[in-house]
């Protein structure tokens, strides 16, 4: 098996597992006072930024990866409307989208810098 095929397969598995984790986290009751002194929006941005990065790694273009992460964030928020102890928050969807956009922007910029300096070439 070539290294490229193995890398894509690994990215697929990680994306599915991570997406499943996001669904689980979106459906379990919130733990108040868990000791995490970070804004909920920052956590959303980081979580969906990672998801967007995984989508980009799958080979989706940047726009599709941001859209995919934002759409997944919207879907999890809509799912929360069906759960009595959770609620839909449009600002969470905004944070998800912004996080995906920023992470993908950083990844694309890093790739461009690596290309410019010849880093990562075999």
Summarize the structure.
This protein has 122 residues and is an all-alpha fold. The chain has four helices and no strands. 74% of the residues lie in helices and 0% in strands.
Q: In words, what does this structure look like?
A:
- The protein is built from four helices and no strands.
- The protein has 122 residues and is mainly α.
- It has one domain.
- α1 runs antiparallel to α2 and α1 runs parallel beside α3.
- The protein is globular.
- The model has no long low-confidence stretch (mean pLDDT 90).
According to DSSP, the number of beta strands is: 0
Bin the strand percentage.
under 5%
- Return the string of H and E elements: HHHH
- Give the biggest beta sheet: none
Summarize model confidence as the mean pLDDT: 90
- Percentage of residues assigned to helices: over 70%
Please, how many domains? Answer: 1
Alpha-carbon distance between the two ends = 18 Å
Helical/strand content category? mainly alpha
């Amino acid at each position: 098996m070539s290294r490229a095929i193995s890398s894509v397969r690994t990215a697929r598995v990680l994306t599915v597992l991570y997406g499943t984790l996001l669904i689980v986290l979106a459906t379990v009751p919130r733990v108040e006072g868990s000791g995490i002194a970070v804004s909920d929006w920052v956590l959303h941005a980081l979580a969906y930024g990672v998801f967007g990065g995984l989508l980009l790694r799958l080979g989706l273009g940047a726009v599709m990866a941001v859209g995919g992460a934002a759409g997944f964030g919207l879907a999890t928020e809509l799912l929360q409307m069906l759960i009595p102890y959770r609620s839909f928050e449009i600002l969470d969807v905004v944070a998800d989208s912004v996080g995906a956009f920023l992470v993908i922007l950083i990844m694309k910029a890093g790739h461009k810098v690596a290309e410019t300096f010849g880093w990562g070439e075999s």
